[in-house]
Every structure is written in structure tokens, then in C-alpha cells.
Specification:
The complex is a heterotrimer of chains A (288), B (136) and C (331).
Chain A (H helix, E strand, L loop, with lengths): L1 E12 L2 E12 L3 E5 L6 H8 L7 E6 L2 E2 L8 E4 L11 H10 L6 H10 L14 H14 L4 E4 L8 H18 L2 E6 L2 H4 L5 E6 L2 E7 H7 E7 L9 E7 L3 E7 L9 E3 L3 H21 L1
Parallel strand pairs in A: 3-8, 3-9, 6-7, 7-8
Antiparallel strand pairs in A: 1-2, 1-4, 4-5, 9-10, 11-13, 11-14, 12-13
Chain B lengths: L17 H14 L12 H8 L3 H13 L3 E4 L3 E4 L14 H15 L4 H15 L7
Antiparallel strand pairs in B: 1-2
Helix pairs in contact in B: 1-3, 2-3
Chain C lengths: L1 H7 L1 H31 L16 H44 L2 H5 L5 H34 L12 H5 L4 H20 L2 H18 L11 E5 L13 E8 L8 H12 L8 H13 L4 E7 L4 H29 L2
Antiparallel strand pairs in C: 1-3, 2-3
Helix pairs in contact in C: 2-3, 2-5, 3-5, 3-7, 3-8, 5-7, 7-8, 7-11, 9-10
Classes of the chains: A alpha/beta (288), B mainly alpha (136), C mainly alpha (331).
GO molecular function, one term (chain C): ABC-type transporter activity
Protein name (chain C): ABC transporter permease
Keywords (chain C): Membrane, Transmembrane, Transmembrane helix
């Protein structure tokens, strides 16, 4: 079963479409990197999946159930702003969330907080560092024992050690419970080591969606003479050109013609290629 | 409780994908005799706790090893090594081939070769004997 | 969920409790000190009879001078508490959640939005109403001890007395609270909701204070033009008065004035007892057959209070429904 599917999902804020015509399906058990530049629509998409805001068009489904104005019981959501009651202590906050949930494991929260250095249960939430608050918020999300974990910029304000701890906790969750995880970041480097599925969005639209290995295997970077570009067959995604040489990112490329070197792209260059193409489309649209 | 036989070291900068690194490291350990038939590979959870990588990647690497007939998953118990890749020629400090190579290294050192020279020579000779397309 | 709401409103609830304790202590002390003063000035009998019948008018006057301020403060307290409930409990209730984004935490737990909202409303509102009713009861208890020496002598319909009696304070408090929460979810700013809530409450409270009287059926009291109607003295609420012609129809006011003026300029000359009698005799002859007044008697005051509660309570229900609607659509 798919844990999260989107069908023609769009979200309009006044005149601007934050998300437009998004369609994808995330199989259960995947660890998904939701990447895209700032303002691409990542947060909007996650908030809609969490039932916090309603799509203007289309529909999101979680484990086959349409999301309608409230969070699915099997979903936990980490909001980008880490909304927590600052005047409560960590212990009180845990108790508060326990009271607001039918299915809850305070033990799980304690276990997660125990793995993280330096979160004092008696400290006021407001006195914690940004990273500390993120760790508390993640622990609270895991306390819901979710099957789908939606994390908006989970690593954004963490130092390297806390980042490693946090990833370890999330990955242990995946190993133990087979949880599907969708993590957003505007930095691909944060995520590409731990994710096996990529959802690249830009301008509110899905640019790439699929298993990372499969996506990479479908693409080729071809380097060859600028004059010979017409001999290359495949769907051109983007290209950089010098006077003599062309570097092309292609999808479903045919075997490279003579004089061209063909390699499988790494994720970084694939994403860059798609974002560059998207920016060029935007620029040319503006110039018209 | 089985103790861990090996621990994976994931190099995030190598450009080699994580699951390939795991496969390589398992095979390497098998060749060197560190992993023998019947040994249990670390569970996904153990690997994740140690290295913060995606457990799906570990499982994917293990499935690849199973496809190659090198390991076998047993439900609820873990993944176990089923085949030996070590041989007389590669195992132990006193294997004859290893001793010959060691002698060659001694001579290279005496004739003033630096490590880059040795690597270049080794790779050149290796590629003559094992052309790229034959290697897996 | 109850613990959750309690923990989040601990500050307000403790403040309310403090207010109650201080109120009970202060009013009990003041009341007993006032009773002492009544006994020592031999005013005990004057508490139950009209002031003009009081045997020791000097002492009564001194007593009133001493106690009218504290008693007025107590009445003002009951007038103000509903506004305070609206400003400090109603307005921040959801505005702070929206302002700080913490509603996202609540909305992503399994509790439904409606239940979350209801439990917050109940935990905030019920203790506030309990404290208000307790204080109202205490103040009434104190005021009744002063009897006709105190403000009660002015009747049930004077603004201050009416506003602190029966269920009216609860109606105002419900309205102020609902207004605060509604402005809170609309503005999403605590401070804006607090100030706008206070302003709007004061305006509506006074704008609607006359409306309630027209909702209760009045009685018409009639009498001869030569004697003032007793309803002007007995604390009844007079909504209309004037003269009736021989057919029993009210005479327009300028016509009344002209006729009275005409009767005053009788030949007998002004100022003499004869002229007064002549004047009174002149009135029915010139067409002002009877005096009338449309009144609500003091014993009917409860009906006016009920109408009052219905108006403000109805507004409160509408505003709370609006609050729920805005919160459910929140995204």
C-alpha cells in the first residue's frame, strides 16, 4: 500500500499557487527526501498531508484515506516552526501531548529523549536551544507511534552531533517499526545519505519522484563536442555549454554516440540539473 | 546474544553509494576470513545505531548478497553468511601469495619508490591482468 | 485533556482563585465593620425603613457619607469583572495559540479540534463564572446588610443596581468572554483581541442597555392630573409618561406644554394657593383628562434581567459559534 498519495494537488494563497498539480505516490516503508529550493512548496505540501490546511484542488490520501481537515491517526508531523508551549517544562509538555492522543507511548518519548544528550526533563521548553526544541518536537512526534512521519526541515537548526543523533533516532524508528518517513530540506546534502526515495519539487510542481537508485539509473550525463549535440538521443533535461563542449543531463538516453562520454549522474548533479531547467523555464516565461 | 563480527564504515564523501559500500565491505571481510559461513551479519538496527544510515539500504545490500548466493536471510533471526570467499591464498599472514607480494613491496621500498609509484604500478599491472569489463 | 487545559490556564485560574479569596475576606471584613457601625450609631431600625422615617437622620447621613464609597466600589467591581473576564481570559484563549503557532501542535494530535476547543472554553469559562457569581453573591449580601441606608434604596432599575443583580452579570460575562475569543481567532493577535475586545464590550454593553426595557411588557398606570403618580417614587421603571385626553389618547408633548402654559396664565395671579388650585382644575378642563405612565414594576425586574441575559447570552452563543467556525477553517 502507498503511505501517501497526491492526486492533482494544488494550493493557492490569494493569487499565488504555492503548490500546483502535484501528483505522486510514496510506497510504505520508504525514507523520502522532499527537496527543493526555499519557497518551492515543501512546507505547504507537508501541512496539507498533516491535515493542517486543505488543498485548493485535488486530494491527498494517507494509507488510502483522504485527508480531510484533520491529521490521520497514523501520521505524526514535525512543523518547521517547532510549535511548543514555551512556558511548560519538557515533562509537562510530554504529559500534555499524552493527554491529547488516543494512541501514545510516553516510554517511546523518554527513550528518544534519553538518546539525546542534554535535554533536561525539568527544563522549561522555552529555555532550550533551537536544536533542543527540535529534538523534543521529534520525540513528541514519535510518541504518537506513527506509520508515516512527516518532518519539515528536521535538521535545519541542529549542530553536527545533534544532526547525527537525530538521524540515528529516525533511522532506528524506520528499522524498528518500518515507519515511512518524509523529510524535507532545502539542502540535499542533509538527506541524500539516508533517503531511498526522492521527491524534488520546484515552483510548486513535482520535478522528480522515485526510488533514488532507479531515478539515477534512468538518467545519464553525456559530455561531448558542442557541434555534435544533434546526434544525442533522449529527453534533454538541462545542458551546460562551452564553446567546444556540451554537458547534457538526459532522461532515458540512448547509448552515447561516438565521441561522447556517458556516466550515471550522482544525485547532487541530477537535482542541480532539474533545478537549473526549472529556473530557465521560469526566466523565459518572465521574459515573454 | 551474538556479538557483532564486523562494523561498517560508511564514507559519505566517496561518491560510492552506501549500499555498494556495504556489499564491498562484507565481501572484503569474507575474503579476509573475518566472516565465515554461519556468521550473522549485523542487523539493520545495529548498523543504523552505529552509522545513522537508512536501514532500507542495509536490507537492500543484504538482498543483493543473497542474490549472489553469499548470504541467506532467516526469518526473525537475521542474515547469515552461507559461503566462504576466503582461500588459502588470501587468508592469514602466512599465505604464500601474500608473502610474495610482501617481498615485492620490500624491494620496491628499497629501490626508493614512494607510495604513489607503488599504487600506479599495482593498478597498471592489475588492469593488464583483469580488464575492466571482467570485473564485477 | 482537562489537566492539559488546566495546566495551560494555570495563571488565570490561580489569579481567579486569588481574587475570590481576597474578595471573600475583604467583603466579610467590611460587612462586619459596617454592621458594627450601624449598631453603634443606633441605626438598626433605619436599615429596613425609608430614610425619611429614620429616627436619627444625622447619624444616617454620616453613615451614608462613610459607606457610600466602599459600597460603590463593590458594585463597580461586579460591573467590571465581566469585562476583565473577556479581556484576560477570553481574548488570549485562542489568540495566543494562533499568535505563537502552538495550535499546530494541538491540531496534529489525535484530539479533534472541536473537543480541544470545547475543553479549553469550559476550563476557562466555568471557573471564571463561578468566581463572578460568588463575588456577586457576596456583594449583594453586603449591600442588603446596608438596606435602605445603602444604594439599594435607589431601586432595582438604576444602572448600577440593575447591572449587578440577578443573572445579568453572567450574561455580560458570557458575552465579554465570547467576544474576546472571537476577536482572538479573527485577529490572531493577543493584544489586539484584548484591546478591541474591551472597547467593543463597553460599546455594546451600553448601546444595548436600553433595548432590554422594550422587550418586557409594560403596565399603564393612570391617575388624575392633580396628583403625581406613585410609580415615580416606588422604584418602578417608567418608560413613558404624559397626559391623556378625554378619549384616553396620549396628548402630544408640545400640545401638553402649550396647555399647561395656558392654564398657568389664569387671571387669579401667580403664587397664591387659589391659583394653584385653579391651575389644577384648569388642566382637565383644557383636555388633559388624566396622567398616565407606562411602567415596569420593581417586582417585574426579574423579567428584565432574563431579557438581558437572553440578549447577551444569545450574542455570546453566536460569537462562540463564529469562533468555532473560524478555528475549524483555520489553515
Amino acid at each position: 500500500m502507498n503511505s501517501l498519495t497526491a492526486t492533482a494537488v494544488g494550493k493557492r494563497y490569494r493569487a499565488r499557487w504555492a503548490v500546483r498539480d502535484c501528483g505522486f505516490a510514496i510506497p510504505e516503508g520508504k525514507v523520502v527526501a522532499l527537496v527543493g529550493p526555499n519557497g518551492a512548496g515543501k512546507s505547504t505540501l507537508l501541512r496539507m498531508a498533516a491535515g493542517l490546511s486543505r488543498p485548493t484542488t485535488g486530494e491527498l490520501k494517507v494509507f488510502g484515506t483522504p485527508v480531510q481537515g484533520r491529521i490521520h491517526p497514523d501520521v505524526a508531523f514535525l512543523a518547521q516552526e517547532r510549535p511548543l508551549y514555551h512556558d511548560l517544562t519538557v515533562r509537562e509538555l510530554v504529559r500534555l501531548c499524552a493527554a491529547m492522543n488516543d494512541r501514545w507511548s510516553t516510554e517511546r518519548v523518554r527513550e528518544v529523549l534519553g538518546l539525546q544528550a542534554g535535554v533536561d526533563h525539568n527544563a522549561k521548553v522555552g529555555s532550550l536551544s533551537g536544536g533542543g526544541r527540535t529534538q523534543v518536537a521529534i520525540a513528541l512526534a514519535l510518541g504518537r507511534l506513527p506509520r508515516l512521519l512527516l518532518l519539515d526541515e528536521p535538521l535545519a537548526d541542529l549542530d553536527p552531533l545533534a544532526r547525527d543523533e537525530t538521524l540515528r533516532i529516525i533511522m532506528t524508528e524506520v528499522a524498528d517499526r518500518g515507519t515511512t518517513v518524509v523529510m524535507s530540506s532545502h539542502l540535499l546534502s542533509d538527506l541524500h545519505e539516508v533517503c531511498d526515495h526522492i521527491l524534488l519539487i520546484d515552483e510548486g510542481r513535482v520535478q522528480v519522484d522515485g526510488d533514488i537508485q532507479e531515478v539515477l539509473a534512468r538518467h545519464r550525463i553525456l559530455v561531448g563536442p558542442a557541434a555534435g549535440e544533434s546526434t544525442v538521443e533522449g529527453t534533454l533535461i538541462s545542458a551546460t555549454r562551452t564553446e567546444r563542449q556540451s554537458t547534457l543531463l538526459l532522461r532515458e538516453a540512448e547509448p552515447a554516440p561516438r565521441g561522447w562520454a556517458s556516466t550515471e549522474p550522482d544525485l547532487e548533479s541530477l537535482v542541480m540539473g532539474y533545478l537549473r531547467a526549472s529556473r530557465e523555464r521560469r526566466n523565459s516565461a518572465q521574459h515573454k | 546474544m551474538l556479538t557483532d563480527v564486523i562494523e561498517f564504515r560508511i564514507d559519505r564523501r566517496s561518491g560510492v553509494s552506501t549500499y555498494v559500500q556495504i556489499i564491498q565491505q562484507v565481501k572484503q571481510a569474507m575474503r579476509l576470513g573475518l566472516l565465515n559461513p554461519g556468521d550473522r551479519l549485523p542487523s539493520a538496527r545495529e548498523v543504523v545505531e552505529a552509522t545513522a544510515i537508512n536501514p532500507n539500504t542495509v536490507l537492500k545490500a543484504y538482498r543483493e548478497l543473497e542474490r549472489d548466493g553469499l548470504a541467506q536471510g532467516r526469518r526473525g533471526l537475521g542474515t547469515f553468511v552461507t559461503k566462504s570467499l576466503s582461500s588459502e591464498a588470501t587468508t592469514g599472514d602466512d599465505a604464500p601469495l601474500r608473502q610474495e607480494l610482501s617481498g615485492w613491496m620490500d624491494r620496491a621500498q628499497q629501490s626508493g619508490l614512494v607510495v604513489e609509484d607503488v599504487d600506479a604500478l599495482y593498478v597498471a599491472v592489475r588492469d593488464e591482468h583483469y580488464p575492466a569489463e571482467e570485473r564485477s | 485533556m482537562i489537566w492539559a487545559s488546566w495546566r495551560q490556564q494555570r495563571l488565570q485560574l490561580i489569579t481567579l482563585l486569588g481574587l475570590l479569596v481576597v474578595g471573600v475576606g475583604a467583603i466579610a471584613l467590611l460587612r462586619s465593620s459596617m454592621l458594627d457601625s450601624i449598631t453603634s450609631s443606633q441605626l438598626t431600625a433605619c436599615v429596613t425603613q425609608p430614610l425619611q422615617d429614620c429616627a436619627v437622620p444625622e447619624a444616617a447621613k454620616a453613615f451614608q457619607e462613610e459607606w457610600s464609597n466602599p459600597l460603590d466600589m463593590a458594585r463597580l467591581l461586579i460591573i467590571c469583572v465581566p469585562a476583565l473576564i473577556g479581556v484576560f481570559i477570553g481574548a488570549p484563549l485562542f489568540a495566543r495559540e494562533l499568535e505563537q503557532g502552538t495550535y499546530v501542535l494541538a491540531f496534529t494530535q489525535s484530539v479533534s479540534r472541536t473537543r480541544w476547543m470545547l475543553s479549553k472554553l469550559v476550563i476557562a469559562l466555568v471557573p471564571a463564572l463561578v468566581v463572578l457569581i460568588a463575588l456577586q453573591y457576596l456583594v449583594t449580601w453586603w449591600l442588603s446588610a446596608a438596606g435602605t441606608l445603602g444604594p439599594l434604596k435607589n431601586g432595582a432599575f438604576t444602572a448600577l443596581n440593575f447591572g449587578i443583580a440577578h443573572a445579568s452579570p453572567v450574561g455580560y460575562a458570557l458575552f465579554a468572554f465570547a467576544l474576546g475569543t472571537f476577536l482572538g481567532v479573527v485577529s490572531r493577535r493577543t493584544l489586539v483581541a484584548m484591546t478591541a475586545g474591551l472597547g467593543a464590550f463597553v460599546v455594546v454593553r451600553f448601546a444595548l442597555s436600553g433595548l432590554v426595557n422594550s422587550l418586557v411588557p409594560t403596565q399603564r398606570v393612570e391617575g388624575t392630573p392633580d396628583r403625581q403618580l406613585t410609580v415615580h417614587e416606588d422604584g418602578s421603571l417608567v418608560l413613558a409618561d404624559g397626559y391623556l385626553d378625554t378619549a384616553g389618547q396620549p396628548v402630544p408633548e408640545d400640545e401638553v406644554n402649550a396647555l399647561i402654559q395656558a392654564c398657568k396664565t389664569t387671571p387669579a395671579g401667580a403664587g397664591t394657593p387659589e391659583s394653584q388650585q385653579e391651575f389644577l382644575a384648569c388642566l382637565p378642563k383644557s383636555g388633559l383628562a388624566k396622567q398616565y405612565a407606562d411602567v415596569i414594576g420593581e417586582s417585574q425586574a426579574w423579567q428584565v434581567h432574563l431579557a438581558d441575559v437572553a440578549i447577551f447570552g444569545g450574542l455570546a452563543v453566536l460569537l462562540l459559534a463564529g469562533t468555532a467556525w473560524v478555528l475549524r477553517r483555520q489553515n
